[in-house]
Amino acid sequence: MRVIIAGAGLVGTSLAQQLLIEDHDITLIEVQPELCTQLEDKHDLMVICGSASDPNIMAQAEPEKADLFLAVTPNDEVNILACATAKQFGTPKRIARIRNTAYLDNPVFDLDWIGVTQMIDPESAVVEAIWQFVNTPGSVEAVSFENGKVCLREYRITDKMPIVGKTLKEIREKNQQDNVLVMTVIRDDKAIIPTGDLVVQAGDDILAVFPEKSRGAFIEMLDLTVRKTQKVVISGSTLTCFRLAQKLADETKVIWVSSNYDYCNKVADQLENVLVMHGDTTDEELLKDIHIETADFFVAAGNNTEHNILSSLLARAKGARETVTISDQPSHNNVLFRSIGIDHIINPRITTAASIMDLIHHGRKLHELKLKELDLEAVRIMVNSGSSVSRTTLSKSWKPLAEKAIVGAIIRNEELFIPGGETVLEPEDLALVITRTRSLDAVMKLFRER
User: Fold this and answer.
1) Which CATH number do you get for residue 21?
2) Which domain holds residue 428?
3) Residue 199 gets which letter from DSSP?
């Protein structure tokens, strides 16, 4: 597939890297000359320096030959105009990154007519990522697929949990009817693609997959105390804060603290069930006034990463049960931040790139999750007709990837099941796979047509 990407920031480069892995032909258009030079030196792709909204620049990328155009610059207007330009050249599919709700919610403004065939709203993607953690207190990682039907959860194992000392085979046999499968065990900061003989130990992190209807069985398997999130404190003056408050307000007590006085007055009039306060969450007296020690979650979602980190650390030190921090820095190490009191780090641009990959593939490789810094990825892949995995049982086709990757779940005709060694995958099945990054190419080859 030939793909043109407008914008070579973190979103654009992340998309380019993922699409290059899949052997697509990529052209990047970027307005900053120094960034263009860096990209040409680092990646095997064509880089055009200029604005994608300029028809003369766009023509150099040969959009008439492209299958897909991705407009992911930080500027909504540039993205919309670039898609309109790509439409004039005949590119059939055009996806734009758009933040301004005036474009998203206006019935008069027809983005499709202008040239945007699909759009990604970064705030919605980030709010959904935050909500996954808020909806699953105590988890290390929390992701859902297929509109929430399939859950991928990571939890730390304590010595009081009933699965300690048991092999994964024993756990699987006991929970087989509930469709719960432990896909990965993380021990001493090293990820293990396990066999059935692996014995679970206290201190392990386990990554399990199960259908939403088996969530109760998974909680029971770990003997977790199910606690409902009752109070969330939000810090910042962003659209992400506003949408998160909207999403949580009906079922959760929400306190929103913003340092922007005018913004506080504006949003307070729009949110009935949210306590909006003017102040700074790095102020210890303010945290004392709002009883931060009773908060189930503290979410720092402002525009300043350093302030988000500092306020999260202070909130945790003062008793907040869990913290979620928005960071625009791709280099921030999740494991390091967890060790000092920040439970969850979310990078909006990486989250946006993952959402765009979902749109691109419609099930071929719909989502990718970097699991900490462990050289592990979770991918969903569609089974192609004639592929290796569709011609024989998994016990045979998967031999070259034993202990390198694992098929955790299959979605067939909108139903999820956990495969066994005798399972034969069918064309159009969706497989959820955990794989080491270096084995990703080998995994993809098994699912391609031959």
Assistant:
1) 3.40.50.720
2) 375-447
3) B
